[in-house]
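User: Quick one: structure for sequence A, then sequence B.

Assistant: Sequence A:
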Amino acid sequence: MQNGMMQAARAYAASSAHRSLRAQEADVFRHANAALRRGQDAGALGRVRALADNARLWTAVIDLMRDPENALPEALRASIVSVGLAVQREMQGPAPDFAFLIAVNDDMAAGLSQQG
């Protein structure tokens, strides 16, 4: 099993080397959305897991945007933090709107996928 995990890690590293960081970041949002889509139709445990994964993603995004060494323009970083805080508020509510969360993640993935 250990050997298989190492092979998988090497294969991922090799394939990632040929893709931009933005493309890889877009995939993270797509992966979170796949979990949200599965979770919205699953039982309580599936929803909780999907929301927890999405919360970790957005906590990391917000932390990265607040890093003073982040090279993105300050106004863009502030806008992304604002979106992230809205996502976090939605996830903390009694009945999170999965369609909203999925739409925001889709928009982030699309923005990251654009050439520029």
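Sequence B:
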Amino acid sequence: MRIAVISDIHGNLEAFREVLADIDRYNVGAIISLGDNIGYGPEPDEVLRVIREQNIPSVMGNHEMVVTDRAHLEWFNPVARKSLQKTISLLSNESINFICRMKFFKIFNGYRFVHGFPPDSATTYLFQISEEKLRDTFNEMEEKICFVGHTHELEIIGFDGETITRTPMHRGITFLHDQKQYIINIGSVGQPRDGDNNAKYVIWDTSNYHIEVRFVPYDIGKVVTKILELGLPKAHADRLW
């Protein structure tokens, strides 16, 4: 089975559409979103509508948390806070209800999916975690693989029962060892921060036991124009380049 895992679309409908078109070229059995479908970008409601129409399961991201409780705005810096307040005003009742039904993690086909860090954190960044904490997490985690987003960067962390390895992931295929456990950070569809401005997502091939990282180009200029026309923070437009 092939599972497409997407994360951090951030209201970037142009990138999301191109990623979905890329996914259509493969024999994918499921698509799962790791959250932060909204925030920063100009079309959060349209992104959520597509997710609902295509029946794509999504876990709760830290940006979605603000929709469920405005007190979470205090967690964000002032620029992100301004963006989120605008984002919320753009959401339909259907989108708000959809977000409020999201859970903080999902188990699918024996694999764990969470926005930030296992078992169920939407706010913890992978780069914050010490090797000792990683080892404890792997020992407590029943699944062999957990997929995360949140940092907008590509990384794979492996554990063989003794040694922790942390390496960046690159475009193309990475084969995994079936005796190891992994936490895999899949990058971002809508706002990459790894030095390459293509949209990113992964395809997990459960039969051949490998991850393929896909780089997908999209019309960045069109998204930048929409961000500026809406009066969203310019920093979030500049970051796309």
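The mean pLDDT is 96. The chain has eight helices and eleven strands.

User: Thanks, that's what I needed.
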